[in-house]
Amino acid sequence: MDIEIDKKSGIPLYLQIKHQIKKLLENGQLQAGDKLPTERELSEKLEVSRNTVSMAYRELVLENLIQSIPGKGTFPNHETSKSFPSQYNNDLAKLEEIIEVTINEALELDFELEELKKIFFRKIEEKEKILRNINIAFIECNYEQLYFFSKDIELGTGISIIPILIDQIREDPEKFKEQIKSVDLVVTTFFHFEEIKDFLANQKQKVLAIALDPLMETMVNIARLSSKDKDIGLVCITQNFAQRVFQTIKQAGIKYKSLKFSISHQEKDLKEFLSHIDIAITSPGRKKEVKKLIANQIPLIEFVYIPDKGSLNMLKLAILDLKREGGKIERK
After folding, report:
1. Could you write out the three-class secondary structure of 139-173?
2. What CATH code would you report for 134-213+309-324?
3. In CATH, what is the architecture of 216-303?
4. CA 60/CA 196 separation, integer angstroms
5. Residue 140: beta bridge partners?
6. What percent of the chain has pLDDT over 90?
7. Residue 255 contacts residue 279 (beta carbons within 8 Å)
8. Which among 186, 213, 237, 276 is most buried, taking Cβ atoms within 10 Å?
9. Domain locations in the chain?
10. 210 Cβ partners below 8 Å, 6+ apart?
11. How would residue 331 be classed by pLDDT, with cut points 50, 70 and 90?
12. What dotted CATH number matches 13-105?
């Protein structure tokens, strides 16, 4: 087991040992059945006290990452190693480690925990102020995606999202240019990026293109329920949304007997449509309406597109850059 420590780094030695063992577990270099060195063996190898190694092992045991079996030794926890944490949990663990190291370094500098709390919360407030008062216009071709983006995408406090249909811009581009004066950043998808750039050729706003992916849970549910003898029906608001959903389902290689859609808001028409399908899909804006009309035995799936992780990170960086450049753009 390869572990190296830096006695001059200022990071507590037991934390260095703990973090490196976690890395070995994450990348598969330590697996179920592998025996860890004894506390005495590792302390002699690293030239640290046995108590230092003991503290590292004890924290790993408390986190259920390793287990000590009397008379046999210390091993990776079999249950934990069967499915290591998701990316979210890995990121969360890294963040907790950073915070833990910071706390320990602050204590070594003789800061009190109460004083550390005040500093921490002050820094959070400063960061929140940096991210306040940003107006973002999100431009798309269908109402459903506009609705989801403006309601469910979390970009932090003080971020206002203005939803704009691209058809409205095409009908009255001058009105759009007037509307956009209060906006700091324009966001659209790659489908409309060049068109929006042309509309804003003489404007100050930056145009950011993002990629939208279907929510993985959505695709898994459709694939699990569908088959070559099933009829899939989609209820949505616009034909554009229906075409995008059908394209996504086909590209995923999902089997089905037929794909059809309805944009009707007439209860009679919807009931008729829903009575001839095996699987119902709905856009975010129509889920409640469809749920009231659909038979209990027919599965109902909400189809959601979300910005991919790279796009979200890029958007958050763009927001941060806006504030660092002095906040609002120069208004005419």
Report:
1. EECCHHHHHHHHHHCCCCCCEEEEEEEHHHHHHCH
2. 3.40.50.2300
3. 3-Layer(aba) Sandwich (3.40)
4. 52
5. 165
6. 19
7. no
8. 186
9. 13-105, 134-213+309-324, 216-303
10. 187, 188, 189, 190, 307, 308, 311, 312, 314, 315
11. very low
12. 1.10.10.10
d(CA 119, CA 319): 24
What sign results for the dihedral spanned by CA atoms 13, 55, 99, 26? Answer: positive
The model's pLDDT over 271-293, given as tens digits with 9 standing for 90+, comes to 999 999 999 999 877 888 899 99
Angle (deg, nearest 10), helices 113-130 and 87-108 = 130
Q: How far apart are CA 93 and CA 64, in angstroms?
A: 13
Residues 262, 286 contacting (CB under 8 angstroms): no
Same-fold call for 134-213+309-324 versus 216-303: yes
pLDDT at 56 over 70: yes
- DSSP at 8: T
Provide the Cα torsion 178, 182, 184, 187; round to 10°. Answer: -60
Query: Cα–chain-centroid distance for residue 42?
Result: 39
| Residue 111, both tokens | 């800061």
CA 70 to mean position of chain CA atoms? 42
Q: Are 282 and 301 in contact (CB under 8 A)?
A: yes
Nearest Cα neighbor of 216 from 311, 312, 301 is: 301
Provide the residue type at 34 as one letter.
Answer: D
pLDDT for residue 133 is more than 70 = no
Quick: pLDDT tens for 308-324.
878 888 888 887 777 66
Stated pTM of the model: 0.49
Name the β-bridge partners of 139. 164, 188
